[in-house]
Amino acid sequence: TGAITDSPPAEMVGTWEGTETHYAGTCALRLEVGADSARLTSYVKCGNDTDFSQYSVDLVTEVACTGDYSGFYHADIMGKSYCHSFVLDPISGNLTTKWHLGPRSDECSRVEEASLAIDLVVNSLAPTGGQASVESMLCQPRQVPGEFAGQWAGQERFSKPCSETGRVTTTGEACAFPFTFDGVTYTNCTTAQDVRPWCSLTSEFLGFWGYCADPVPAGECVDGQAVVECQMSMVVRDSGKDGMLVSNFDACHGAAALSITETVFDAVTEGECFEKDGQPVSTGLLKAYSDREFCYRFERHGSILRMAYSPTFFSNRKHHICPEDMEISPTTAVVEMALLPPISTGLPDVKTGGWLCNQPPGPLPLAITGDTSPSPTAMAPLLPPAVVAERPPPAVPPPWGPAPSPVPPMVPAPLPAPAPLPALLPSPASPPPSQPPR
To answer: Which of 2, 12, 201, 369 to pair with 429, CA 20 to 30 A apart?
Structure first.
């Protein structure tokens, strides 16, 4: 079962009209998005124009959900990738998209940082027909597959850069010792202006730096990587009907204790349930979002659940690549947990008949709250008469690969953006550029 994802999200399907605002002014905009195509076609009318003319044909290559009815998508325009944000207002039915023309246009985080005075493009659109039904919207809570129901406890294992001396960064780059910062020369990692040891990557500090990797005992650091194990737990209540997956991570290897609540919005299995060593098995992929999107490869084997995902190394992308396997690597963390007995947790274990691998093809059911009424985000927004955007179930595994080349679009040449300023060392309250998973 499953839906998605190398086509525009259902939130954007239909015909829309409104305005496009950027550094050069405001133009009338019409956007046409089909339910069965990866293409978005834009038409503009500016100045003294009396009619719309085709502006661009964008090819959607990646979609990520980061909130209810909102997220990001990448579009290829003249061979260059641009990250766009999208937000659908469930009350008015209006759609807002943003993208930027400046450097590193494929970085989603820069869409949130860009200034309208420099390089931001804002599209404000109202629906005019052909919108998708609420049931087909991509970014909304759906019931967690039965394979995940209950309370779990176990370990997370991941690989992190290391050295026996601690003289490399957490991203594996070599510290430049000795280095000079603010008039002082350092021969080891320092906590100057921070609470965690860091080092400069250049002999004279130019804004390029990183947090220092933890030194590990001789023999535990292999090819610059060490496998780290941290304790964690996970709970899926009410048999997953509320769509919530709550994970709790113990403080470990310099990272503080962390609790994350994620909203499940899609899952696909790699076939029907089968047996191994006398126990039922289900394998597949699950997608969920918090402030970014996570993709998990999972295997439920009896009362054991294993999950693999890509840690937050590329926060500018707002999503994570679905792991191809469950092997620990610098880009893949693996979780293994055991189901706690229902008698001790009060949470029932969903029997195999309720597992996703035993369900007919199709999207996950919409989430419901504990009082059995639809959750607010699962209620139909006030849209015009809907045309249901049917999406065929994906092949197994789902075809989330590259899409075909786009028709060359026509876009205005962007003004050159100012060169970025050198990175400054953040205050202790600022998040580190890289840290253990999550």
So the answer is: 201
The 3-state secondary structure of the chain, one letter per residue? CCCCCCCCCHHHCEEEEEEEEECCEEEEEEEEECCCCCEEEEEEECCCCCCCEEEEEEEEEEEEEEECCEEEEEEEECCEEEEEEEEECCCCCCEEEEEECCCCCCCHHHHHHCCCCCCEEEEEEEEEECCCCHHHCCCCCECCCHHHCEEEEEEEEEEEECECCCCEECCCCECCCCEEECCEEECCCECCCCCCCEEECCCECCCCEEEECCECCCCCCECCEEEEEEEEEEEECHHHCCCEEEEEECCECCECCEEEEEEEEEEEECCCCEEECCEEEEEEEEEEECCCEEEEEEEEECCEEEEEECCCCCHHHCCCCCCCCCCCECCEEEEEEEECCHHHHCCCCCCHHHCHHHCCCCCCCECECCCCCECHHHCCCCCCCCCCCCCCCCCCCCCCCCCCCCCCCCCCCCCCCCCCCCCCCCCCCCCCCCCCCC
| Cβ atoms 294, 313 nearer than 8 A | no
354/191 Cα distance (integer angstroms): 52
Q: What is the pairing mode between strands 150-161 and 25-33?
A: unpaired
- The amino acid at 400: W
Phi-psi region of 112 (alpha: psi -120 to 50; beta: other; left: phi over 0): alpha
Token duo for residue 171: 């991203």
Instruction: Look at residues 8, 140, 2 and name the one whose alpha carbon lies nearest to residue 73.
Output: 8
Q: Are 156 and 335 in contact (CB under 8 A)?
A: yes
Handedness of CA 306, 311, 315, 319 (dihedral sign): negative
181 Cβ contact partners less than 8 Å away, ≥ 6 residues apart: 190, 192, 200, 205
| pLDDT value at 383 more than 50 | no
Residue 158, amino acid: F
Query: In the predicted model, is pLDDT for residue 390 greater than 80?
Result: no
Residue 155, token pair as written in the block = 């370990």
Q: Which of 50-54, 168-172, 434-438 has the lowest mean pLDDT?
A: 434-438
Q: Which residue has the higher pLDDT, 167 or 2?
A: 167
For 122-139, how does the pLDDT look when each residue is reduced to its tens digit (9 = 90+)? 999 999 999 999 999 999
Instruction: Give the pLDDT confidence score for residue 269 in this predicted structure.
Output: 95
CA distance 414 to 101: 6
End-to-end CA separation in angstroms for the chain:
27
Q: Which residue has the tokens 């076939």?
A: 271
How much is the pTM? 0.73
